[in-house]
UniProtKB/TrEMBL annotation:
Domain of life: Eukaryota
Disordered, as annotated region: 311-334
Biased composition (Acidic residues): 316-329
PANTHER family: PEPTIDASE S41 FAMILY PROTEIN, TAIL SPECIFIC PROTEASE DOMAIN-CONTAINING PROTEIN
One Pfam family per UniProt: PDZ_CPAF_rel
Record protein name field: CPAF-like PDZ domain-containing protein
Record domain CPAF-like PDZ: where: 162-279
Native species: Bimuria novae-zelandiae CBS 107.79
Leader peptide range in chain numbering: 1-23
Alphabetized UniProt keyword annotations: Signal
InterPro entries: ClpP/crotonase-like_dom_sf, PDZ_CPAF-rel, S41A_metabolite_peptidase
Gene3D superfamilies: 2-enoyl-CoA Hydratase, Chain A, domain 1
Amino acid sequence: MSVISRCVLVFGVLGALAEGAPAKTDRLILPPTPTEAPEVASTACGDLIVSKEQGQTLFWASDVFECLSNVPFIPDVASRFINYYNETLQFHSTLAFLRDPPEGYQQPPVDVVFEFGLLQRNIAAGIYTTQYAFEADLQLLINRIHDSHVYLSAGLLAPFTFISPFYLVSASRAGQEAPGVYFREDVIAGQLEGWEPSPITKINDVDVVEYLTSFAEINSEGYLEPHADWNALFEHPALDIQSSQSVLHSAIFYPGDAVNYTQANGTTTYSYWLASYSEAQHTGPLTTAGDFFNYFVLGLLPDSWNASNPQWWPDWEGESDDSEDDGEDGPTPADVICTAGNPRQVSWCKDSQGAYPNNPDYVQEDLNRLKGGVVSGYFLDNTTGVLSIPSFLQQGIDTKNFFRVIDEFLGDATEMNISRIVIDLQQNHGGLNLLALSVFKRFFYDQEPWTGSRIRTHELANTLGEAYSSWWDGLETGNEGALDEDGNYHYFSSSEWVVGNRINPATGKNYSSWHEYNGPISDRGDTFSNLQLYNLSDQVFDTAGFQGWVPFGYGISTPEKAPPTWAPESIVLLTDGLCNSACAYFVELMAHQAGVKTVVVGGRPSTGPMQTASGSRGARLYSSEALDYDFINVNNTLEDHETFAKLPSRDNNDLFINFAGFNIRDQIREADKDAIPVQFKYDAADCRLYYTLANIYNLTQLWRDVAAAVWDDPSLCVEDSTGYAVRKASAPSKTPPERTVQAPTLNLDHITFSDLTVNTTGSPSLYDVKTKDSISTTDLKQCFHRASDCAGTSLKCRDFDVDCTGQQTTWRTMSACLPDTTNYGAGCGDGLWFIETNDAESKKNVPKKTLGGKKVNYETVTVVEGYCAPVYVDVRKYKLGCPIS
């Protein structure tokens, strides 16, 4: 068998054999008391940068934290950022509902405005003495909002994540038994070789459920209930194929140094937490913690930084691989599984550790972890088909290929009289609403998708809305913008502040003015606009709002022959509760509007219901950068200098931001007289299943289990998980479960004071003249000569697709100066997404750590390199021109 070696202590060999597991002779037998970890050198920050430049991709968490916890803190910088960010979040749509959530909301309430005031008071009172302590408190507040549209990648913490040394999964031994926690490698090997793995019962001598529940509460990635927080901790095949990370492999907060895992069979495994450092650009020599503040917090380059990147670090003269030969040269479980039978040349099988079938019936072009394809399709038998959509994020020609493979699958399913379709949305973290709308219309062509949404109204929002809407309405455009030489009519037609082309559902006509749209509607001590609907028949709005595309069924995307409408009872949506943003909108359309059933898998080891989509259900992700752009364009594009003078400055912020997101519009259901945002509706699945040892890494088995529970045997559903679902035409028979979780807290007492004056080298002033490069879709620089056009920056000339005609027919490759990053890296800027290029080569491994004279092991972590590229570029607006090849 192929098992990655772990450092273990065996207390009961007979217990292991009694459970059917083979003796683990390949593991190290150690004395019961681990020795102390080596003391970290005081040059931790400088050592980290040197090691990264020498090719190291992973670090011991304690080494990284030694550096981070000594990075100094400047109160004025933090205070200005809090003012800026607080002003930004005034545009977040659900502040009142977070403070006073309705019945059924599963997370603790949070008064965001009060908490920002508390942060400011803590700054003024000198509570924070290090940058880490301040940013940790800030990130915890963001996590407490439990909305993945509210996301901050900025400052010191952005390029660092903490990583579990082993991959874990949560699964039930049988369908109705409460799930346990297991090492993933044991589950995969056990299923292949016919033995049952032993569950983990304790982590760091704490009950495993208690430990992981606390870990999930603090590191929550924006989910609406604890069941989803639990699922997000663990590994999953759909994560593997997207080069994405579980929460245990991407934690924000330092989890400690040593970690041990105790299994039911008496085996204890010892290791240490790892960390990633993912700043892809060359930073220049950052020697001290003060230098880290300059670079990561302020975005300032050291005096010695050189754009030509001459080598300033010493060559690595050690071995490129410090791992020990475990004597296992045979095939991996994935090798065995993925070569069995009649495998297709292209599949997700190997990338998923053998979980996806090796013989898909349909694959999207460029289906590859390092390319753009994501969709695959399968016919399990002559009645059941599976359409796997792990992401709605596509760019350029991949979008066209996405639609093509779905059309092929549905066309053949119709011809074959397939009567059951499982749409697998596990680990689908969203993407483009265009794809959600267009896939919905392929199943229910005769239905008009509901797009009702609203904003939070306040003085700044109304100032922007009045200015933009009146300006846009007055543009001289001719027929569909024929006179729009500057591209403003098209580009701003989907602006948040233009309502002249949005439909008022109360009248069925376009809004005549911002004043008509503004309302205001009062609720919970706050004010909101009236609802707006998209006019999907307006191609000018469509192409501006949907990345140059028109949704299926409208305008140029109207098919010659309407596709058949599927019966709702023939379809089931499968999720793991992590469905987010565009995925959550797809669930809303399919389940609530069309009446399709849903099944959710996993969750905490307890009975009861679980929600289908616990990611953000907001209507529109927005960013601080987009808001900055809206403010400045009042002056530069609208030339409304009088209104611009009334707006506060958005320049008074020193902290370097990669991305700061928020939700600008609520999604509101049709005919909901209470107008409760969908974000705060308890929206349970029709049925909940547990992952099992047999199906967690065998998706064919999981899909069969789902089909059986929906169409053959409802008793397979987890106890008391049915009867909670809401549909457009029916109410649930049971009330939502009560909220039980409390707001999490962080203990930062172990962080000591850091003196800025002894932690800064190089420049005599923090405010150096050279700054890090930052780009967005509004300031792209096209490049034609790869060797020279991006010279003098840390950016590289990179390629991406553009649609030159606006008809989705003529795709060309454009090149622009773009930043590198990794799959563990800081977030890309507004309107940008991560394009993978290759798995990073680790030329230098983490220094050895030992226990009892034996080397401590950990599972290999794959770091994927790539770059941030635009999802869509309006070539007309930005005069970039279309390339000729």
